[in-house]
Amino acid sequence: MTxxxxxxxxxxxxxxxxxxxGPHSGIALKEGLDAALVAAAFGRRVSLLFMGSGVAALxxxxxxxxxxxxxxxxTLDMLEMYDIxxxxxxxxxxxxxxxxxxxxxxxxxxxDSGGVAQLMACHSLVMTF
Amino acid sequence: xxxxxxxxxxPYSSQAAHSxxxxxxxxxxxxxxxxxxxFYADGVHxxxxxxxxxxxxxxxxxxxxxxxxxxxxRLEVCIAAALRRGIIDAxxxxxxxxxxxxxxxxxxxxxxxxxxxxxVDCDRLITFGA
Lengths: 129, 130
Hints:
The structure holds two protein chains of two kinds. Chain A is built from four helices and six strands, in the order ββαβαβαβαβ. By secondary structure, chain A is of the alpha/beta class. Chain A has one domain: Hypothetical Protein Ychn, Chain: A, CATH 3.40.1260. Chain A has a six-stranded parallel sheet. The relative contact order of chain A is 0.28. Chain B has one domain: DsrEFH-like (Hypothetical Protein Ychn, Chain: A), CATH 3.40.1260. Chain B has five helices and five strands; from the N terminus they run βαβαβααβαβ. The model of chain B has no long low-confidence stretch (mean pLDDT 96).
Protein backbone atom coordinates (compact mmCIF):
# COMPACT_ATOMS: atom_id res chain seq x y z
CA MET A 1 0.00 0.00 0.00
CA THR A 2 1.41 3.36 -1.03
CA UNK A 3 0.73 6.12 1.43
CA UNK A 4 0.74 9.67 0.20
CA UNK A 5 2.01 12.44 2.43
CA UNK A 6 1.65 15.28 -0.01
CA UNK A 7 -1.63 15.82 -1.82
CA UNK A 8 -1.65 17.39 -5.28
CA UNK A 9 -3.43 20.59 -4.31
CA UNK A 10 -3.92 21.64 -7.90
CA UNK A 11 -6.12 18.59 -8.40
CA UNK A 12 -8.17 19.25 -5.26
CA UNK A 13 -11.90 19.90 -5.43
CA UNK A 14 -13.89 22.76 -3.95
CA UNK A 15 -15.69 20.67 -1.37
CA UNK A 16 -14.20 17.99 0.87
CA UNK A 17 -16.74 15.58 2.35
CA UNK A 18 -15.32 13.61 5.29
CA UNK A 19 -17.06 10.30 6.04
CA UNK A 20 -16.39 8.82 9.48
CA UNK A 21 -19.23 6.34 9.98
CA GLY A 22 -19.46 2.74 8.85
CA PRO A 23 -22.00 1.46 6.32
CA HIS A 24 -24.41 -0.49 8.53
CA SER A 25 -24.27 1.06 12.01
CA GLY A 26 -26.59 3.90 11.12
CA ILE A 27 -27.58 6.24 8.34
CA ALA A 28 -24.77 8.78 8.80
CA LEU A 29 -22.61 7.42 5.98
CA LYS A 30 -25.53 7.41 3.55
CA GLU A 31 -26.52 10.96 4.46
CA GLY A 32 -22.94 12.14 4.02
CA LEU A 33 -22.69 10.48 0.62
CA ASP A 34 -26.03 12.02 -0.36
CA ALA A 35 -24.63 15.47 0.39
CA ALA A 36 -21.59 14.70 -1.79
CA LEU A 37 -23.75 13.47 -4.68
CA VAL A 38 -26.03 16.52 -4.54
CA ALA A 39 -23.01 18.84 -4.50
CA ALA A 40 -21.59 17.04 -7.55
CA ALA A 41 -24.97 17.17 -9.29
CA PHE A 42 -24.90 20.95 -8.69
CA GLY A 43 -21.60 21.11 -10.55
CA ARG A 44 -19.26 21.35 -7.57
CA ARG A 45 -15.91 19.53 -7.64
CA VAL A 46 -16.13 17.13 -4.72
CA SER A 47 -13.41 15.16 -2.91
CA LEU A 48 -14.18 12.36 -0.46
CA LEU A 49 -12.10 11.43 2.56
CA PHE A 50 -12.88 8.18 4.36
CA MET A 51 -11.71 8.19 7.99
CA GLY A 52 -12.24 6.10 11.11
CA SER A 53 -15.07 3.58 10.72
CA GLY A 54 -15.86 5.28 7.41
CA VAL A 55 -13.14 3.24 5.66
CA ALA A 56 -15.32 0.14 6.20
CA ALA A 57 -17.50 1.51 3.40
CA LEU A 58 -14.65 0.59 1.04
CA UNK A 59 -14.58 -3.09 1.99
CA UNK A 60 -15.24 -5.37 -0.98
CA UNK A 61 -17.88 -8.10 -0.91
CA UNK A 62 -20.51 -6.21 1.08
CA UNK A 63 -24.11 -7.31 0.93
CA UNK A 64 -27.15 -5.61 2.34
CA UNK A 65 -27.16 -5.15 6.10
CA UNK A 66 -28.56 -8.00 8.22
CA UNK A 67 -31.27 -5.65 9.52
CA UNK A 68 -32.46 -4.83 6.00
CA UNK A 69 -30.32 -1.70 5.64
CA UNK A 70 -29.70 -0.94 2.00
CA UNK A 71 -26.00 -0.29 2.56
CA UNK A 72 -23.86 2.17 0.65
CA UNK A 73 -22.04 0.00 -1.86
CA UNK A 74 -24.47 0.83 -4.73
CA THR A 75 -23.88 4.54 -4.03
CA LEU A 76 -20.09 4.14 -4.21
CA ASP A 77 -20.54 2.45 -7.58
CA MET A 78 -22.28 5.62 -8.80
CA LEU A 79 -19.54 8.06 -7.77
CA GLU A 80 -17.83 7.93 -11.14
CA MET A 81 -21.08 8.82 -12.87
CA TYR A 82 -21.16 11.97 -10.72
CA ASP A 83 -17.52 12.77 -11.63
CA ILE A 84 -16.42 12.19 -8.04
CA UNK A 85 -13.02 10.67 -8.69
CA UNK A 86 -10.93 12.32 -5.96
CA UNK A 87 -11.27 9.80 -3.16
CA UNK A 88 -8.92 9.51 -0.21
CA UNK A 89 -8.67 7.21 2.80
CA UNK A 90 -6.82 7.78 6.05
CA UNK A 91 -4.04 5.19 6.08
CA UNK A 92 -4.07 4.67 9.87
CA UNK A 93 -7.82 3.91 9.74
CA UNK A 94 -7.22 1.36 6.95
CA UNK A 95 -4.44 -0.28 8.93
CA UNK A 96 -6.60 -0.43 12.05
CA UNK A 97 -9.10 -2.57 10.13
CA UNK A 98 -6.34 -4.54 8.39
CA UNK A 99 -7.42 -3.15 5.03
CA UNK A 100 -5.18 -2.29 2.11
CA UNK A 101 -5.82 0.61 -0.25
CA UNK A 102 -4.99 -1.75 -3.12
CA UNK A 103 -8.05 -3.97 -2.64
CA UNK A 104 -11.05 -1.70 -2.16
CA UNK A 105 -14.33 -1.23 -4.02
CA UNK A 106 -13.22 2.10 -5.52
CA UNK A 107 -9.83 3.61 -6.27
CA UNK A 108 -8.64 5.68 -3.33
CA UNK A 109 -5.41 7.43 -2.43
CA UNK A 110 -4.19 6.46 1.04
CA UNK A 111 -3.06 9.56 2.94
CA ASP A 112 -1.26 9.86 6.26
CA SER A 113 -2.08 12.45 8.92
CA GLY A 114 -0.08 15.11 7.08
CA GLY A 115 -2.07 14.39 3.92
CA VAL A 116 -5.35 14.63 5.85
CA ALA A 117 -4.34 18.02 7.23
CA GLN A 118 -3.38 19.18 3.75
CA LEU A 119 -6.72 18.03 2.31
CA MET A 120 -8.57 20.02 4.94
CA ALA A 121 -6.42 23.07 4.26
CA CYS A 122 -6.68 23.07 0.48
CA HIS A 123 -10.47 22.75 0.20
CA SER A 124 -12.42 25.97 0.69
CA LEU A 125 -15.38 24.03 2.10
CA VAL A 126 -15.25 20.96 4.35
CA MET A 127 -18.28 19.01 5.54
CA THR A 128 -17.84 16.28 8.14
CA PHE A 129 -20.29 13.44 8.56
CA UNK B 1 -18.62 37.94 8.13
CA UNK B 2 -21.48 35.81 6.80
CA UNK B 3 -21.98 32.52 8.64
CA UNK B 4 -24.13 29.43 8.22
CA UNK B 5 -24.52 26.47 10.54
CA UNK B 6 -24.95 22.81 9.64
CA UNK B 7 -26.52 20.95 12.55
CA UNK B 8 -26.53 17.14 12.58
CA UNK B 9 -27.46 16.39 16.19
CA UNK B 10 -30.88 16.05 17.84
CA PRO B 11 -31.62 18.25 20.85
CA TYR B 12 -31.18 16.74 24.34
CA SER B 13 -29.71 13.45 23.08
CA SER B 14 -26.48 15.15 22.02
CA GLN B 15 -24.63 18.33 22.88
CA ALA B 16 -24.54 19.43 19.24
CA ALA B 17 -27.82 21.35 19.18
CA HIS B 18 -27.10 23.14 22.46
CA SER B 19 -23.62 24.17 21.30
CA UNK B 20 -24.90 25.23 17.88
CA UNK B 21 -27.58 27.47 19.41
CA UNK B 22 -25.08 29.15 21.72
CA UNK B 23 -22.65 29.56 18.84
CA UNK B 24 -25.41 31.12 16.74
CA UNK B 25 -26.18 33.62 19.50
CA UNK B 26 -22.48 34.42 19.92
CA UNK B 27 -21.96 34.98 16.19
CA UNK B 28 -24.80 37.51 16.14
CA UNK B 29 -23.66 39.16 19.37
CA UNK B 30 -20.28 39.77 17.73
CA UNK B 31 -21.98 41.64 14.90
CA UNK B 32 -21.74 38.98 12.22
CA UNK B 33 -24.55 37.93 9.94
CA UNK B 34 -25.94 34.40 10.41
CA UNK B 35 -27.72 33.60 7.16
CA UNK B 36 -29.20 30.22 7.96
CA UNK B 37 -29.11 27.09 10.05
CA UNK B 38 -29.40 23.92 7.99
CA PHE B 39 -30.81 20.93 9.88
CA TYR B 40 -29.70 17.59 8.50
CA ALA B 41 -29.51 13.98 9.73
CA ASP B 42 -30.76 13.75 13.35
CA GLY B 43 -30.60 17.56 13.46
CA VAL B 44 -34.07 17.64 11.90
CA HIS B 45 -35.51 16.83 15.34
CA UNK B 46 -34.73 20.44 16.29
CA UNK B 47 -37.73 21.41 14.15
CA UNK B 48 -40.22 19.19 16.02
CA UNK B 49 -43.28 21.29 16.86
CA UNK B 50 -44.50 18.64 19.31
CA UNK B 51 -41.32 18.62 21.40
CA UNK B 52 -42.31 19.41 24.98
CA UNK B 53 -39.22 19.53 27.20
CA UNK B 54 -39.59 20.15 30.95
CA UNK B 55 -39.86 23.87 31.69
CA UNK B 56 -36.62 23.99 33.67
CA UNK B 57 -34.57 22.63 30.75
CA UNK B 58 -33.25 24.57 27.73
CA UNK B 59 -36.03 25.28 25.20
CA UNK B 60 -34.08 24.44 22.08
CA UNK B 61 -36.87 24.63 19.50
CA UNK B 62 -37.94 28.02 20.89
CA UNK B 63 -34.32 29.15 20.73
CA UNK B 64 -34.20 28.57 16.97
CA UNK B 65 -37.57 30.26 16.47
CA UNK B 66 -36.34 33.31 18.42
CA UNK B 67 -33.27 33.53 16.18
CA UNK B 68 -35.47 33.58 13.10
CA UNK B 69 -37.84 36.20 14.55
CA UNK B 70 -35.21 38.51 16.01
CA UNK B 71 -32.40 38.18 13.48
CA UNK B 72 -34.04 36.85 10.32
CA UNK B 73 -32.01 33.64 10.38
CA ARG B 74 -33.46 31.12 7.91
CA LEU B 75 -34.23 27.72 9.45
CA GLU B 76 -33.88 25.17 6.66
CA VAL B 77 -34.61 21.48 7.17
CA CYS B 78 -33.54 18.74 4.76
CA ILE B 79 -36.76 17.25 3.45
CA ALA B 80 -35.42 13.72 2.89
CA ALA B 81 -33.86 13.49 6.35
CA ALA B 82 -36.96 15.01 7.97
CA LEU B 83 -39.64 12.87 6.34
CA ARG B 84 -37.98 9.58 7.23
CA ARG B 85 -37.82 10.76 10.86
CA GLY B 86 -41.43 11.91 11.11
CA ILE B 87 -40.79 15.64 10.79
CA ILE B 88 -43.31 16.69 8.17
CA ASP B 89 -45.13 19.89 7.21
CA ALA B 90 -48.81 20.24 6.33
CA UNK B 91 -48.25 20.05 2.56
CA UNK B 92 -46.16 16.88 2.75
CA UNK B 93 -48.58 15.34 5.27
CA UNK B 94 -51.42 15.86 2.83
CA UNK B 95 -49.36 14.49 -0.04
CA UNK B 96 -48.46 11.33 1.88
CA UNK B 97 -51.86 10.84 3.49
CA UNK B 98 -50.74 11.48 7.07
CA UNK B 99 -53.13 12.62 9.81
CA UNK B 100 -51.00 15.35 11.33
CA UNK B 101 -47.89 17.40 10.81
CA UNK B 102 -44.96 18.11 13.07
CA UNK B 103 -42.74 20.79 11.54
CA UNK B 104 -42.72 23.92 13.68
CA UNK B 105 -43.04 27.19 11.76
CA UNK B 106 -40.92 29.08 10.74
CA UNK B 107 -38.76 26.05 9.91
CA UNK B 108 -39.06 25.17 6.23
CA UNK B 109 -38.43 21.93 4.36
CA UNK B 110 -35.88 22.26 1.60
CA UNK B 111 -33.41 20.19 -0.41
CA UNK B 112 -29.76 19.35 0.15
CA UNK B 113 -28.84 21.67 -2.71
CA UNK B 114 -29.62 24.53 -0.34
CA UNK B 115 -26.91 23.27 2.02
CA UNK B 116 -24.37 23.24 -0.79
CA UNK B 117 -25.36 26.79 -1.82
CA UNK B 118 -24.97 27.98 1.79
CA UNK B 119 -21.53 26.41 1.99
CA VAL B 120 -20.43 28.13 -1.19
CA ASP B 121 -22.11 31.51 -0.60
CA CYS B 122 -21.23 32.09 3.06
CA ASP B 123 -17.77 32.92 4.39
CA ARG B 124 -18.01 30.15 6.99
CA LEU B 125 -20.09 26.99 7.31
CA ILE B 126 -19.74 25.51 10.78
CA THR B 127 -20.80 21.89 11.38
CA PHE B 128 -22.06 20.70 14.76
CA GLY B 129 -22.43 17.04 15.68
CA ALA B 130 -20.88 14.64 13.22
